């Protein structure tokens, strides 16, 4: 688990031209030091939409140092570090653009993206930094201030580390691995913890020889977890509905093509709750 890293965030005047940068360095999972500066992007045009978001105007930065003049102060936070950003593709692009613009050699660093990691690890309706801060109960008072966004990103990275670590332990040791943190997340997502634990722990041959296709989003499980549950009960997962398919398991927003094919072939269409009842789970909690 990575505990030494630098969370960073650029705000831009227009395009990839930065007007502020915030960086927060963590050591052993604890905030160690920070950096924040307004940056003169040396461009005349400030996108009105961007200004509306972060509140930094041309007048605010016209007498500030440019990126090159600040580089020596930035470098200790970047060279050889693990950099973390929310939508890292954008922030890395701003960094690269600025280095190329001023003819500065690209330093060595590794990069992680909390946007991508959160999408991979948890299911939420929104993955905006402010939404994730609210979900994980990270205090945030000045969204789109580069320093505060960097701090929130750093705290989020640590929480995602914990989620990933406990998921790995659970995968290794089984669902009986005690994880109040994963249960807390499941409850906040509106999931039934008892159902999750019982379904993921169960092994039987109740679906032995039956073919399943899954489609849509489920209340208590990710699609990968739903596949795992079916296979643990002897079922076989296929990608497309055919005349050999026994069940199409549908969550919300299922694929219409799969629904139409299931009706055409006579495949039984069942809900998440129907499936749990067939496994004798939801009626016995």
From TrEMBL:
Species of provenance: Zunongwangia pacifica
SUPFAM superfamilies recorded: BRCT domain, Ribonuclease H-like
Listed InterPro entries: BRCT_dom, BRCT_dom_sf, Ribonucl_H, RNaseH-like_sf, RNaseH_sf
Xref: PANTHER family: DNA POLYMERASE III SUBUNIT EPSILON, EXONUCLEASE
Assembly, per entry: DNA polymerase III contains a core (composed of alpha, epsilon and theta chains) that associates with a tau subunit. This core dimerizes to form the POLIII' complex. PolIII' associates with the gamma complex (composed of gamma, delta, delta', psi and chi chains) and with the beta chain to form the complete DNA polymerase III complex.
CDD domains: DNA_pol_III_epsilon_like
Membrane-spanning residues: none
A Pfam family reported for this protein in Swiss-Prot or TrEMBL: BRCT
Gene Ontology biological process terms in this record: DNA metabolic process
One MF term in the entry's GO annotations: nucleic acid binding
Domain BRCT, first and last residues per copy: 202-285
Designated name of the protein: 3'-5' exoribonuclease
Lineage: Bacteria, Pseudomonadati, Bacteroidota, Flavobacteriia, Flavobacteriales
GO cellular component, one term: cytosol
Main function: DNA polymerase III is a complex, multichain enzyme responsible for most of the replicative synthesis in bacteria. The epsilon subunit contain the editing function and is a proofreading 3'-5' exonuclease.
């Amino acid at each position: 688990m990575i505990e030494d890293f630098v969370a960073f965030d650029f705000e831009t005047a227009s395009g990839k031209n930065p007007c502020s940068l915030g960086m927060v360095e963590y050591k052993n999972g604890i905030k160690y030091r920070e950096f924040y500066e307004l940056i003169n992007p040396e461009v005349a045009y400030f996108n009105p939409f961007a200004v509306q978001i972060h509140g930094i105007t041309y007048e605010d930065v016209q007498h500030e140092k440019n990126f090159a003049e600040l580089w020596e102060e930035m470098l200790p936070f970047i060279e050889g570090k693990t950099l973390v950003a929310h939508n890292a593709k954008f922030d890395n692009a701003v960094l690269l653009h600025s280095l190329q613009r001023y003819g500065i050699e690209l330093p060595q660093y590794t990069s992680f993206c909390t946007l991508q990691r959160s999408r991979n690890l948890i299911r939420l309706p929104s993955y905006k930094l402010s939404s994730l801060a609210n979900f994980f109960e990270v205090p945030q008072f000045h969204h789109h201030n580069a320093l505060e966004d960097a701090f929130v990103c750093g705290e989020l990275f640590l929480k995602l580390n914990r989620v990933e670590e406990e998921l790995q332990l659970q995968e290794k040791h089984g669902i009986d691995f005690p994880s109040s943190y994963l249960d807390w997340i499941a409850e906040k997502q509106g999931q039934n913890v008892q159902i999750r634990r019982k379904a993921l722990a169960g092994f039987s041959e109740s679906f032995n020889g039956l073919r399943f296709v899954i489609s849509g989003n489920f209340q208590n499980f990710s699609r990968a977890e739903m596949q795992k549950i079916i296979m643990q009960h002897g079922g076989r997962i296929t990608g497309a509905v055919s005349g050999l398919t026994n069940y199409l398991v549908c969550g919300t927003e299922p694929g219409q093509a799969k629904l139409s094919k299931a009706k055409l072939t006579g495949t039984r269409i069942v809900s998440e709750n129907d499936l749990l009842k067939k496994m004798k789970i939801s009626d016995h909690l």
